Amino acid sequence: MLSRGVRRQILAARDPALPFRKIAPLLASADLAFVNLESPFSDHGPYHPDGLIFHAAPEMIAGLELAHIAVASTANNHARDCGPHGVEFTVKWLCEHQIQPVGSSESEERTHRGIVLARHGIRFGFLGYTYDQQNGNWRDIDKRIAITDIAQMTRDVQDLRERSDVVIVSMHSGTEYMPKPNQAQIHFAHAAIDAGAKLVIGHHPHVIQPRENYRGGVIFYSLGNFIFDQFQREATQHGEIAEVDFLESQIFVANTWPVRITATGPQIE
C-alpha cells in the first residue's frame, strides 16, 4: 500500500523505492515474486493524506522494480479508488514495467484468462480475485475486476490448467483483524484447490491467519500486512512472506519468513 502514511515517508526520504529497500534483496532472490497491490497507480486525481481512498504515484513503481516483482494482484477492495482511469492506468503501468497484473486487465475476458510465466521450464499460471471491488464508493460492478465467484473461478482454474503446469490463485478475502479465516475464505480456497490450483495466497484481514495443507495444495489464508501504515494494533505490525519451492509441478516445501512492519518498510524479524 503506497499511499497515506507510506507516501509521507517516501516523500520525506525523497526515495520512491523506500518501502522496499530493506526487503528487496530477499524478494529479488526468488525465481518469481508475487505481491498484492493494495493501492492503484494513477497519474490523475488527488492524493488523500488520510482515509480509505488509496492512490499510488506512478514513480513509486520503483520499489516493485527494485524487488524484482514479477506478478501483482490488482483485484482487491481498493482497485477502483482512482476510478476507471486508475483501473486502466494501473494495468498499463505495471505491464510497461514488466510486472504482470492479475485479477484485473483491459477486459473481462482477459482477466479471467489469467497470466502464465515460465521458470526453469515450468509454466506458472496466476489468477486473482477479490470479495469486494466497490469499497463503499461504487454501486456498479466493473467486470474487468474478478470477484470471488466460485463457479467462475472454477472455470478459470480449469482453463488455466490446460495452459500451465502450476496454478496459483490470489484471494483478497476475509474479516479484518480476525486471526482465523471465515467460511467464505475456506470455501473459496478449497474450491480453488479442488479445481486444480496448487497454491492459494490470501490477503485482506491485515493480520496473519493460519496456513492449511489441503489435497496436495497449500493455502495461506492471510499473510497479514507488508507495506502498510497500521500501527494502532500490535497484530497489524506483523506479516509473513510465503516462500514456496516447487519440484517440477509439485510443492516441495512451503515456509514463511516473519516480517516486522516499520514506518520505513518491512524487515525480517
What does this structure look like?
The chain has 269 residues and is α/β, with parallel strands linked by helices. The chain has a single domain (4-268), classed as Purple Acid Phosphatase, chain A, domain 2. 25% of the residues lie in helices and 27% in strands. The protein is built from seven helices and twelve strands. Strand 2 (69-73), helix 4 and strand 3 form a beta-alpha-beta unit. Helix 6 runs parallel beside helix 7 (183-195). The longest helix has 14 residues, at 83-96. The chain is globular and about 45 Å long. The mean pLDDT is 97.
Overview in brief:
This protein has helices at 4-13, 24-28, 61-66, 83-96, 108-113, 150-161, 183-195; strands at 33-36, 69-73, 100-102, 115-119, 122-130, 166-172, 199-203, 211-214, 217-220, 238-247, 250-262, 265-268. The protein is of the alpha/beta class and 269 residues long.
Total number of beta strands: 12
CATH superfamily: Metallo-dependent phosphatases
How many helical stretches? 7
Radius of gyration: 17 Å
Report the sheet-strand fraction. 25-35%
Task: State the helical fraction.
Answer: 10-25%
Shape: globular
Structural class: alpha/beta
Strand order of the largest sheet: 4-5-6-7-9-8
Layout: helices, strands, pairs:
Elements: H1 4-13, H2 24-28, E1 33-36, H3 61-66, E2 69-73, H4 83-96, E3 100-102, H5 108-113, E4 115-119, E5 122-130, H6 150-161, E6 166-172, H7 183-195, E7 199-203, E8 211-214, E9 217-220, E10 238-247, E11 250-262, E12 265-268
Parallel strand pairs: 1-2, 2-3, 5-6, 6-7, 7-9
Antiparallel strand pairs: 4-5, 8-9, 10-11, 11-12
